[in-house]
Design goal:
Blueprint: H1 3-26, H2 33-52, H3 57-69, H4 72-76, H5 83-106, H6 114-136, H7 142-176
Helix pairs in contact: 1-2, 1-3, 2-5, 2-7, 3-5, 5-6, 6-7
């Protein structure tokens, strides 16, 4: 991985982790927290990949973000192993792997299938995370997880095209200077 891509991944991983630690912590007991945070994550990862031009950036971003999320223990005053900390940190790692794989498979950097890359990534993430969360008792039952995936998928249709457009506009602005 190029040094520039690694620095971009580090930068956006910290931003992602700060969002998770602050906004995610504030929304800890909000029922649609996963839908909101998954789409913020999708946007940050899509932008990080577009900016770095490397799919592996998502993996590094996820590792940095999950480590940053662990600082939420100090912010919320709860143990590190509480479900309010561990559940999102685990979801961050899973999402980073899934988003990286789906974006590579869908041709995100080639500007292909932008409108379906987000929903597919969100659905696969929820499909992987849901059994784990139900099994560990983070969520009461499957119906609750299924109810939460619908708004997440609906919003995600627009996230990838928006981030791709933003990156192209910023890149065009950088080349004209």
């Amino acid at each position: 991985m190029r040094r520039k891509a690694l620095l971009i991944a580090f930068e956006w991983g910290i931003i992602w982790g700060i969002f998770e630690a602050t906004l995610g912590g504030a929304l800890s007991y909000f029922p649609y927290r996963g839908a909101i945070m998954s789409n913020i994550t999708l946007g940050l990862v899509a932008y990080g990949i577009a900016r770095s031009k490397d799919y592996r950036a998502a993996l590094f971003m996820g590792i940095i973000a999950s480590l940053t999320k662990l600082t939420d223990s100090f912010i919320l005053g709860v143990p590190v192993l509480s479900k309010v900390i561990i559940a999102p940190a685990t979801a961050i790692i899973i999402e980073s792997f899934v988003f990286s794989f789906v974006f590579r498979f869908m041709g995100f950097l080639e500007h292909k299938r932008l409108y379906i890359a987000g929903p597919v990534a969100i659905m696969i993430s929820f499909a992987i995370i849901s059994p784990f969360f139900v099994y560990k008792g983070f969520v009461e039952n499957w119906a609750i997880m299924i109810m939460k995936v619908a708004p997440a998928v609906g919003i995600s249709v627009f996230v990838c095209p928006l981030m791709d457009h933003l990156e192209r506009r910023l890149e065009a602005g950088e080349t004209t200077r």
